[in-house]
Amino acid sequence: MRYAETGYNLEIDLATGNIERVETDPKLMELHLGGLGTSVKLHWDRVPPETKPFDAENLLVFSTGILNATPAFSANRSVVTFISPQSELLAYPMMGGFWSAELKYAGYDKVIFSNKSPKWVYIWINNDKVEIRDASHLVGKGALETQFLIREELNEPRAQVAAIGIAGENKVFTASIEQGRSSASRLGGGAVMGDKKIKAVAVRGTKNDIHLAHGAEFMEHMMDMTKYINFRRENPIPGVMTILSGIGSPQEMLHTDEKWHTENFSWGNARTRRRGFWDERISEEWPRVQLEGIKRLISCFNCPQQCGALISYKDTPRYMAKCFGKLTYAMASYVDKMEFAWTTLQRATEYGVDSFSTPQILAFGIELYEAGILTDKDFAGAPTDKEGRFVWLLDRVARREGIGDVLANGTYWAAKEIGNGAEEYAHNNIKKHEQLPLKLGMLDPLYYLMYSTNEKISITQIEGNWPQGAFPTLEQREEFVKDWPQLPNEYMKQWLLDWEPRGEKGIPHFPTPDMCCEIVDWMEMLHNIDDACCVCAGMSSFCLKPPYHIHNYPKIISAATGLDLDEDSLKKIVNRSRNLHRAYNNRLGMRRKDEKPPEDHWKRRFPELEEELLSTYYRYKGWNQDGIPTKERLHELDLDYVTEDLEKRGILKDGQD
Amino acid sequence: MAKIKKKIKTITVDADKCNGCRGCEIVCSGFHSIPKYSTINPARSRIQVVFRPLEDIWLPIFAGEYSPAECMGREKYLIDEKNYDECEFCRASCPARDRFKEPDSGLPLRCDMCEDEPELEQPKCVEWCINDVLVYEVREEEVDEEESIDDVEIGLQSLVDKHGLKKIVETFTRMSQKD
Ligand code: SF4
Ligand code: SF4
Ligand code: SF4
User: Of B27, B41, B50, which is closest to A208 when you measure between CB atoms?
Assistant: First the structure.
């Protein structure tokens, strides 16, 4: 009997139309759990490093995690893996919602797409019946519209559909995969899906029971968690901004006070910090229009939070939204109207684009135009008002028309192609990917490491459990550490107590590089557990004092799977997958030189300290000074086959550490 | 007929508060698996959430009586400018659709208010719904005594309806001989 997982993957060869249900090796769960862990293993085994993002050999894998479809709260992520057209590394954007649960109840842990379809198709997974269906009538349709049309066509209102819009069809590098209120947005999964000519993947599952090894015990853990969730609902963390005080992903649909984000982020193309933005007019208009647009707050599968919303604003077609998309378009365009935010987000959601990168790319285009690097010829036909021009450019990008065809590759690649000084303007990237539009003063050593080294290469990186800044008073710090069972080691409390907003015990020199390594490694490890379980980071690694943590995770996973895990063995498993992922990206060319936050991320930089941080962290992780796992580390993690491969390719040289 | 005291258990559904998480379906299916929580499959749940997100419809429905035949007509509801399709509010396990049937055997499902020994403080779906959509109440009423039919009988009745009494008896005999 297989517990927690279904024990089967669905293999779909798009070139031949061959569909197979393949039993997986039960050992894989012991080695990599599931979710991102087992997906990384799949890519390692089957996709050689010569593969380019749009080669037929680039696998596109939709995976559930080990806890999806169990009663584990918020275990609803689907993780999509592929070599990204933007970063050219192994990407893993995730989406919440309901898709992964349906897939497991249909009887599969993963759907693995190989090769390319000769014509547009969508996939219909209905328990053991799996079909590749014609999608020619859906080409050109919006991502949300497509989901709706497919449900109608199948006459199955409960089918969950992950679809691309025209941006994915046109292989825009920031194309997302949209699913109800959720999306897998970062690093161009929609483009790879479009390249394979998959318009959508619909799934409905009713026939497959998910077995729990120790169900009653599992439920006891969940009841404890319910108590804690209720406690946290009534007791937000004091002394931090509202958005960080609760649990769940950022409650952007619920909260209307956006003074902090609008005034502290850098808007346009990560350019201007708009102090005083949240003035009398805006602070009245924006909350009012936000609430006018929100019809209902909605949740993902089995989650007590409700981070998403059904948006019904005037005569804009209805859609669903979550997170910062509500701010990014209006702020990037300097159109200071919440109405513009709601209407543009609808358009962008139907096009199916990432609402972090895309607004920056559009603002980048406009900056280049204003600087004379792009010309009237590039903007021929564009309206002259800010609003009109921004939407016009969004249309061009989604359709890859004219200058939009260049910008559709993201700021890094577009700048290279445009030349003439454009590179200077692509200033907010790590590993060729647009980051959160945030420009700060003093180098933060923890964030320096998180930004530089994680394979996620995007917004949430590996932050979450450690507070974003030091508390000003000792009383606040004492209050915070008093009740902090999530911490892996008691002695770390002292670090927080000692941590001052500035001075000797403040950033950039404190926490010290050694402390930083431990803190960052802990937070990263938690993200890796979430990603193997497909638990929402909002209930775990991405929030302060979360319901899931290193002390209850082993018990929860053991009760579900029947594995006998303690903290060390769980850490070892995710560390194994994490090192395999790193080695995979090393194989794709990633090295120390790539591990750099944007030049202007902080005003005050400390080159020597930064090098020291990186070197110390590499050593801590068991990587050599080029950021490649050492033979010893790989051996400890039972990854000798990786050493062998890296040596054969000359990436690891014998005797070199 | 003699009067007896009967506990009337009600669950009030405040559907506007539902955020569509389907947690109620998960816990119900787990609670009714044997042993408890050994398997999870919302298709076996005795509460099912009807959802059509863009129409702002999220509606938890509890499994009611088993019905051997579908109704002659259909109703459509228009409430608060939302159109509810035919059958949407109906609680029956009926031949016209898949809802409230075990996905493998097709046997009907019915909400039993989580009857258990010892009695639960509140039904599982109510406990699990953190958004207070489901509100539980018990009151006592005097009612005429009547024979209640239990789950096994309902199940058997549905099998008889489907395959005929003769076939069921034959199968039953054959199975008992195997033991
Ligand atoms: S916390 Fe929010 S994003 Fe995460 S699973 Fe729950 S509803 Fe979804
Ligand atoms: S648990 Fe509550 S909020 Fe969630 S679907 Fe059921 S009734 Fe709705
Ligand atoms: S009351 Fe119990 S049996 Fe009825 S739907 Fe709720 S959980 Fe299921």
Answer: B41
pTM of the model: 0.95
Please work out whether the CB of residue A97 comes within 6 Å of at least one atom of ligand 1. Answer: no
Q: What is the ipTM of this complex?
A: 0.95
Q: Is A139 domain-assigned?
A: yes
Find out whether the peptide bond into A508 is cis, omega within 30 degrees of 0: yes
Q: Which of B27, B39, B41 to mutate to test the interface with A (most CBs of A within 10 A)?
A: B41
Q: Which of A302, A307, A310, A320 to mutate to test the interface with B (most CBs of B within 10 A)?
A: A302
Q: pLDDT value at position B1? A: 62
Residue B93: other Cβ atoms inside 10 A: 25
- Closest ligand to C-alpha of residue B114 is 3
- Nearest ligand to the CA of A94 is 1
* Chain segment A461-496, per-residue pLDDT in tens: 788 899 999 999 999 999 999 999 999 999 999 999
Within A301-353, strands assigned E span 308-311, 319-322
Name which residue sits closest to atom 6 of ligand 3, judged by CA. B125
Domain membership of residue B16 (yes or no) is: yes
- Cβ density class A291-310: b for 16+ within 10 Å, e for less: eebbbbbbbbbbbbbbbbbb
Q: Per the domain annotation, does B82 fall within a domain?
A: yes
CB-closest option in B19, B56, B104 to A207: B104
Structure token digits, residue A601: 């991320």
**What CATH number does residue A61 fall under?**
3.60.9.10
| Domain-terminating residue out of A142, A176, A204 | A204
The confidence score (pLDDT) of residue B166 equals 85
Provide the pairing of β-strand A266-267 with A272-273: antiparallel
Q: Model confidence at A97, in pLDDT bands (50, 70, 90)? A: very high
Residue among A456, A468, A453, A467 at smallest CA distance from A597 = A453
Last residue of a domain, one of A162, A186, A204: A204
List B residues 26-45 in contact with A (Cβ-Cβ < 8 A). 26-27, 30, 33, 35-44
User: Exposed, middle or buried by CB within 10 Å (0-12, 13-18, 19+), for A263?
Assistant: middle
Could you list the residue range(s) of the whole structural domain that residue B108 is in?
Answer: 3-149
pLDDT of residue B170: 82
Q: What is the rounded CA–CA span in Å between residue A207 and residue B95?
A: 18
Q: How far is the CA of B100 from the CAs of A157, B63, B111, in angstroms?
A: 16, 6, 9
CA-closest candidate to residue A198, choices A143, A266, A122: A122
The answer to whether B53 contacts A181, with C-beta atoms less than 8 Å apart, is yes
For residue A455, the enclosing domain spans 440-648
Q: Do B98 and A206 touch (CB under 8 A)?
A: yes
With contact defined as beta carbons under 8 Å apart, do B89 and B61 qualify?
Answer: yes
Query: Which amino acid does the sequence have at A465?
Result: N
The secondary structure of residue B174, as a DSSP letter, is H
| Closest approach of B148 to chain A, Cα-based (Å) | 30
User: How many whole angstroms separate alpha carbon B74 and alpha carbon B71?
Assistant: 7
Residue A119 lies in a domain: yes
Which residues are within 8 A (CB) of A90 and not within 5 positions of it... i.e. 6 or more apart? A40, A43, A81, A82, A83, A84, A455, A581, A584, A585, A588
Q: For residue A629, list its beta bridge partners.
A: A623
B133 contacts B13 by C-beta, under 8 angstroms: yes
CATH number at residue A458: 1.10.599
Subunit contact A209:B40, Cβ cutoff 8 A: yes
Q: What is the residue-wise DSSP string for A151-175? A: HHHHT-TT-EEEE--HHHHTT-TTB
- What's the total number of domains in chain B? 1
Q: Which of A571, A589, A564, A548 is nearest to A636 (CA)?
A: A571
DSSP letter string over A200-249?
Answer: EEEEE--S-PEE-TTHHHHHHHHHHHHHHHHHHHHSPPTTS-HHHHSSSS
